[in-house]
Amino acid sequence: MPPADHGTPPQSSPSGPKANADSLRLSSLPRNAPRSFDLRPDDTARGQLARELGLDGLRKLRFHGTLTPLAGKDWALKAKLGATLVQPCIVTGAPVTTRVDVTVSRAYQKDFVMPSEAEAEMPEDDSVEALPETLDLETVMTEALALNVPDYPRSQGAELGSLTATPPGAEPLRDEDTKPFAGLSALKAKLDEPGGESSQ
What are the pLDDT digits (tens) for 115-142? Predict the structure, then answer.
């Protein structure tokens, strides 16, 4: 009597569980050729990122490029970041759409030395970082996008105007009064008046 067939047991994947494509363990990557990547977050991911960055909307977002092995265990990243974001105008509150297209470059060095506090104030190259064990491409994309979000979005034709804070009874401070040598100009004008010291 032939043995009962209990079915074919499931075969385990030799590579184990699938790793997050956005998170790369650099020491495990082949070093004989560049590795390309292409991140295109879906609507849900873009919505979450928009909330994190204080945006009204993030219509498009793509981060694509290559990781290239360098001497030793170092790596270089070069990518293109493209995004279409929506923010409120700081003057009118109307939605302002901004297109961002920038090149992102990073160098990850095994022997990177963190600069001292004095050197950190004006780093020679802020694109150089310590070699991480795992590189999170989504984090790199988010940081690059945050650096390129306009601080003061304004709709076309919107003007900030001028604000003055003046104590009661005093004349408001004008823009001209805050310019260099404004005091000297006022003194010269006073001296040039009839009866001034320069006219005596």
Answer: 666 655 555 567 899 999 999 999 999 9
> What span, in angstroms and rounded, lies between the C-alpha atoms of 133 and 110?
10
62, amino acid identity: R
Residues 38-80 pLDDT 10s: 999 999 999 999 999 999 999 999 999 999 999 989 999 999 9
Q: Cβ(110)–Cβ(73) under 8 Å?
A: yes
**What's the one-letter identity of residue 33?**
A
CB distance 108 to 114 below 8 Å: no
**pLDDT category of residue 173 using cuts at 50, 70 and 90:** low
How far is CA 46 from each of CA 43, 78, 135, rounded to the nearest angstrom?
5, 22, 20
How many Cα atoms occupy the beta-carbon half-sphere of 85 within 13 Å? 28
Distance of alpha carbon 146 from alpha carbon 88, whole angstroms: 16
Cα dihedral: 134, 140, 142, 148 (round 10): 170
